Amino acid sequence: MRSLGKRIELLKVIAHSVRIKILEELTKGVKCVTDFEEFLDISQPNVSQHLSLLRRYGVIDYYIDGRLRCYFLRDPIVTDIIRLLDKDYKEELPAPACCPVTKKGKYPGKRRR
After folding, report:
1. In the CATH hierarchy, which fold is given to the domain comprising 4-86?
2. Is the predicted pLDDT of residue 58 greater than 70, yes or no?
């Protein structure tokens, strides 16, 4: 089980629009830097910085195929996180019965003053 610190660190590392797009692509399979440049519309050095950060934290890794660096996912939780972020929820959660919005019920815990 990951410590709280490791979970927070992982969320901070992936919490960037470019890195989420990179991870979404990697859930589909192996990609090289030029693949990322095509759909991200950012410079190769910028792509490399994002890939380097993801690699430093163990989220992704790469292998060399000739002159290409081919990147792939290492951390299996990333696929679950990306799938969860893409999920479309139809409704919000209902307010609890003790909520001031619903004006029903009483708070089940002890009130502190």
Report:
1. Arc Repressor Mutant, subunit A (1.10.10)
2. yes
